[in-house]
Design goal:
The chain has one domain: Rhomboid-like (Rhomboid-like fold). The longest helix has about 30 residues. Strands 1-2 form a two-stranded antiparallel ribbon. It is built from 8 helices and 2 strands. It is mainly alpha-helical and about 230 residues long. Helix 1 packs antiparallel against helix 3 and helix 5 runs antiparallel to helix 6.
Length: about 230
């Protein structure tokens, strides 16, 4: 059966290729973060103090791009590594290039939230803003892209990790809830900005002979194709 014009074709081979890329990208990213932590530790956390985001400090504004690589302790980086890999992989497996754009957006929204609204002279570092951004992106991406599997993944992740939202609200001691909230907002925004655009078919403007039949059949074909790609049919 021919796939209807105007829909996005995602072959199993392409999905596997992108998933493989996503795995190595996240593995490499974590390796860099841990290497930076080793340097950070041996230098008595001087890099964290010098390259973190300090609220209201104009000179620290570029550090929005360096702060996610830095952590205050081994416990800090250990608590971030698992969620960073899981959500990062799920955010990247549909396309690494789109994921890199998302990462930049989330780093900026998280960093700006800290820079504008955090308490005076507070130095903030850590990858948790990215984690919340990837989480928000994964939860809603399927709705914007109209992918059944991604929608189901989003529902599972939302149900499994909803407790994370408790540290994205005011009053949580010892964490930068503003970095979390800013990252989450960036992830939700990224899901819309980086959504898949489906090219409109010339026949879309025409009224079909049977108004109810064509959309139903097309949706069913899309569903069967996506399940088949994942080996579920």
């Amino acid at each position: 059966m021919d796939r209807p014009t105007g829909t996005v074709v995602t072959s199993p081979e392409r999905m596997i290729t992108e998933a493989r890329k996503a795995f190595f990208v996240m593995f490499g990213f974590l390796a860099v973060v841990w290497l930076v932590q080793l340097v950070n530790y041996t230098d008595d956390y001087t890099p964290a103090r010098e390259y973190g985001v300090v609220s209201g400090d104009l000179g620290s504004l570029p550090h929005i791009l360096t702060a996610p690589f830095l952590h205050w302790s081994w416990a800090h980086i250990e608590s971030n590594s698992g969620p960073l890999f899981i959500f990062g992989f799920l955010a990247a497996y549909r396309g690494v290039v789109r994921f890199l754009g998302l990462s930049l957006l989330v780093a900026v929204t998280s960093g700006l939230a800290v820079w504008f609204f955090e308490g005076a002279h507070t130095d903030t570092v850590g990858a948790s803003g990215l984690i919340f951004g990837y989480f928000g992106y994964v939860v809603v991406r399927g709705l914007f892209d109209r992918h059944l599997i991604d929608t189901l993944i989003g529902i599972v992740m939302a149900a499994s990790f909803a407790y994370m939202l408790t540290v994205a609200v005011p009053g949580t001691p010892g964490v930068s809830w503003l970095a979390h909230l800013g990252g989450l907002a960036g992830g939700l925004l990224g899901a819309w900005l980086f959504r898949e655009r489906r090219r409109k078919s010339p026949t879309d403007d025409k009224t079909p002979t049977s108004p109810s039949a064509l959309p139903t059949n097309t949706s069913r074909a899309d569903l069967h194709k996506e399940l088949g790609d994942l080996g579920l049919l």
